[in-house]
Protein 1
Amino acid sequence: MNGTGSTTRKVPDGCKFHRNVGKLDVTNVTEANKFLELFPFNEPPRISFDWKTVPFLPAEEPLITDTTFRDGQQARPPYAVKDIVEIYKLLHELGGSGGLIRQSEFFLYRDPEREAVAKCLELGYAYPEVTGWIRAVPEDFQFVKDAGLKETGILTSASDYHIFLKLARTRKEALELYLSVVDAALENGVIPRCHFEDVTRADIYGFIVPFAQKLMERAQETKVPIKIRLCDTLGVGTFEPRAVLPISVPKLMHVLQYEAGVPSKQLEWHGHNDFHRALANAVTAWLYGCGAVNASLLSFGERTGNTHLEALAVEYFRIFGGRIRPGNDIRLEVIGEIAEYYKRMGAQIPSNTPLQGSNAFATSAGLHADGLFKNKTVYFSFDPEIVGSQPSITISQTSGTGGIVLWLQLHRDETGIPITNLAKEHPAVKKMLDWVTAQYTDGRTTTISDQEVFALAMQYRDALCMSKEAAETYLLSLEANAQLPIKTEQDVHSFLVQHSAELEFPEPPENHPAVRLILDFVNNKLQHYGSISKDILLQGIREEYLDLLQMDAKTAAEWLVSNRSGGGI
């Protein structure tokens, strides 16, 4: 029988690890068992193997629970109440009405935390259900009651490191304390969720199983589905079923379900990423029967963070997508919205973050770019739009003409350049690449910004809109007259006099302040592109200096003093 009175799944035949331990009592040792063979401290933690495996039995209804506003909050500046509410809405949209993201936990100790809980409850969402988190102190239940919550997490430190060295108690004393807090929760009509802190360094048969068994006894007696969250607090757990306890995630799931009698639906996993295993361990917990995995948005959490919630949602689709419950309208495209919201809050998302970083669906290699231009499936395993993102290209020394073409394709709405004639062999594309190549020949060590590529595209826009043959003729004619003989302010003044009718302004005096600014404009173009055509110069004058040229020299000088501190207008 399980913790709420229903029958557990039968242990498959042939499981050599299963022990049928029966009912256990806490082993009350006098000294902390630190498992020094696994955690020598003067070396990285070790992974040892007993070569025994446990059954691969995935959870029947795998779920996600959220700790963004609890563990995630511990690793970043405090969220504003309005941001908590907006992020909670995004969690609701991502998880869908079927409740893939079943719960979200909150601190309850500060006024802003309690205000955020109240505002989230006002939204009336069924999922994620708002739950609390408190210490193992009976008096803290008043916060839960005042908030009107039905469930709360309770910190129940599980390893001897915590029981002996932090709490300064024996195992039996810790057990009595924890059970008294659980009893207080039950008396207050609140579902207790016991967080077995540091379970991956705990004595499984000397403390964990006896504690879990006593919790399930209370669950049977009260018909309350008491939950247990197994916390890999230092990220030392491993997904390998042949590893030893307490570090083997598969073995932990087996022991809690089949030896301690905890139903899958009442079992959770909470991992950290200290050894890059958070996501793998979380998925492993699902695959070995754990009903829910705890995670946080963008993996924010203590030290190296928790399981990445958005990645976990994608893993759910990858593993269980064929049997998603009807009506479970999960919206993976919200993953992109979440990243954008955090960026607006000032969060730094590393560019190589899967799914959400700026390089997640980017390339700079010409070979990859050429493949993507021809067909996105060549270098993408799925459409980036599924997670609210878009393909991108970063122009660098490796981009080649394929990279230039892909950039123009992806930015066609901004440039207005049709992709009909675009090909690696197009002469204007080659001209753009010539400029890029020259940058790196001259020692550049940074990528070319989108702004620079855009300016380059505008310089060759007319040619890019032509066929290959027409563009070749056009570019040859430009080259013949491209370099305007402008090196001094007098040259600029002569150009303005020559084109005053075309620009529709009176001939300016030689000392007009706009003359110096236009010379700076010319020099800037020469530095970046090596040449400047008449059309580009006329366009620049119209866009930036025409109003100034229509003033007399004195008025223009006074205007500049009062309205600008340098650079263009």
Protein 2
Amino acid sequence: MLCLLLAGGPAKAQEKFRARNFRVRVAVQHEVEALALQGLGAYQVIAANGRPLTQMTAFDPYFVQITRGQPGSRLYRLVLRELDAHQVDPAVEYAKAAKDAYGLPVKVLRMPARDRHESRIIVTLGEFQTLEAARNYHQTLKNEKVRYIYEDRARAEQGEVRLLNRQGSIVARDSRFLRLVPLDIAAGSLRLMELNPSRFKANDLLEARRYRGEVELTINEEGTLTAVNDLWIEYYLYSVVGGEIGQDAPVEALKAQAVVARSEAVAKIQRGIVSSSFFDFFDTPIAQLYRGKQEEDPRVLQAVDATRGEILVWNGQAVDAVYGHSCGGVIASAHDVWGGMHEGYSVRRLDRLVNDKAPDLSNGSDAHAYTSKPTDALCNPEQAGFPAYAKKYFRWTRRFSGAEFSALAGVGRVKDVVVERRSPSGRVTRLKIIGDRTWVADDELEIRRALDHVNSTFFTVLPVQDENGYLKSLTVYGAGFGHGVGMCQMGAFMMGKKGYNYRQILAHYFTDVKIRRLYR
């Protein structure tokens, strides 16, 4: 059996997204035991079946708790591959090969939302009733590297969500979820924070984040509490745009950021590439940084309103218009970094306004030569008006002693670090660490983790061995911050400084796309 669990198909997801009036669902608190909240305005409390239960009094503190009932059941799966959220096609190809090789159930599924840091795809083998059975089968696999054993929930834990007033009395309860709806949608907002009952003081809510729209309080797959902010995508962007590129960015760069952020969210929802069955996105930068209403800025609101409903379209489909802080001077194609299909709008090029054809940097010496010489890239910090906080990301160096890196790598005493494969954009796509055991990483985030979370995969390595052949030191020479695909935010920032408008900025970073307005 080969099974894909990626939040439904694209057509179904697109239909649902339109039906919900282009709203997004963002996890703003996840896997917590209790919450404190306060409505800045009156809120209706609605049960999962749509029945109104009560009304929250404005400015009164309330508390949310869960009670646990029947425990859930578990299955254990061997994780063969863990991939970035964009790598659906490689995951499916690998899963088909695994199914043919082993004859056991193989699944491609979204990594459950646990650490709030990233959305991943995993390819799993087998469905074992006990951890011991999974471990025993693991021992029979001689040539297949199992990343880890994943504990899946065949049936979610049962329980109840309860809303309590300041006196501790239960004012609403439901076995699935409670929905909090502002009576004044335009003016209402809700303060929300994780609750530590032994330390909580009412004034703590004054420092809590505030959220527009509705909030859904639900029991998640792990049997803990998740708060989901359900709001119109434009309100979501009011917070995201400034959080991602900086509120002080030129207004045309803010507009470009609004279009790509909107386009990325729309494309991911329409394609069913979401973080959980309960919500679309986390509020962290691995999705898009969302901090609620208190992070809004008048210049950002102006930029979002000026581009309302606008997304990038290629071949009639919303573009997953990803972006990163700094490309280091070379924009990578999506295929360079994540594999899979070649998307015509994602083209490798130099981040410059003229003569932007990029050289082939798949050879390590060529990549090192490029990052070692001066460049007129748009994201080069040696320009007037470049933000000071971002200068450290264009070129960077990390150094490890042999002992430090051996402790980090977890393969015993390290002998060598080898770049086995590099894309034409200079990004490392396969890294081998040779020690008492050999370990290979061939995924962008996995490679960056292997080097203690370096800023990007646009790097070269200089290992030095001691007289016994063991690693004495390792130096990593790098460029850029992030995956390097799509819009380089610092390049867009500087294009805005130079007087280019947002349409010109978008045309520079995305080839042959059109701007389409989904709604007004």
Protein 3
Amino acid sequence: MFDLNPAAAQMQRLVSGVREEQLDRPTPCSDWTVGDLLAHINQFATVFAQNARKEQVRPPESLPDDWRQAIPARLGDLSRAWSQETAWQGRVAAGGIEMDAEDNAVVAIEELTVHGWDLARATGQDLRVDDTRLDLVDRFFELFGEEPFGPAAQAPDGTPRLERTVARTGRDPRWSPRAAQEIRIRPETPADVEAIRDLTTAAFDPVPYSDGSEPQIIDRLRADGDLAISLVAEDPSGRMIGHIAFSPVTAGNAARGWYGLGPVAVDPGRQGEGVGRALIEAGLAALKKFGASGCALVGDPGFYTRFGFSGGALSYQDMEPSLVQHLVLDDLAPDDADAPPAGELRFPKAFDVAAEGGS
């Protein structure tokens, strides 16, 4: 057994220190805003408390209006639940994985520590974590592997232990809100083609499910006249750090005017800083501006639902239906337009490059 109360109490302090005007600001965590991060903290506090009690309770999915009171209360409940000896007995299921109760407490410590760092960095608060707790976070990596969230970020020599720890989760230990906010989004120009190709290659190279065809897909979309929207993200020096493509698709039985999102790529050294979110939001805004009916994609529901996407209505090859996401964009459409399109999602021929082995 170990004491979760110091970590939970520290998170309570951090949550209480968030200001309303900070809710829309970026965080180091997977393109989440501060509001998104608070919603996640509220959710995992509920889940870990119920795991300690071996209960089944549906966790909240969105940030409550009274978050400033509700989240600290849930964190206090988490701490009390794990103070009972029965919490450490038996096995629990978390994220679809069954594990010993003590291992689940290790996951809770990792979440409290890493997301505490996210929240502190995003909102300008102080965070200090002792070696005893960081030793417990090390146990998390022993249990789930060195890169459970994808490739680790680089931590320069002399980086403090807490920042070295968060770098193991793929976060940039040098992340700052100012750097995340200094992003310029603009349409591609002919001079960008080679840089887009190089950026996309670098971004997808470490991705296990990628076959390396993404740069060729973009090139062929452009050559076929199907690259409807192509946006790049630049840092203050003008260096390209992200790219997103949109192309016309057939979304089941939906009328014309639907577009597919992707590929989207972010420089590996700038991932987790809000670049992807900025590109997606700018792209969706551009689609709305010229009257698109909707947008569809194949991707992680946990990420894309924050932009309003939902799954289960469209199909694509043999993909799990929840991965095939759609979003209705036409606010002036008939009253029944919110009904999701049904049927098969079909992308332009450029996407056949993947099936052809990237040729």
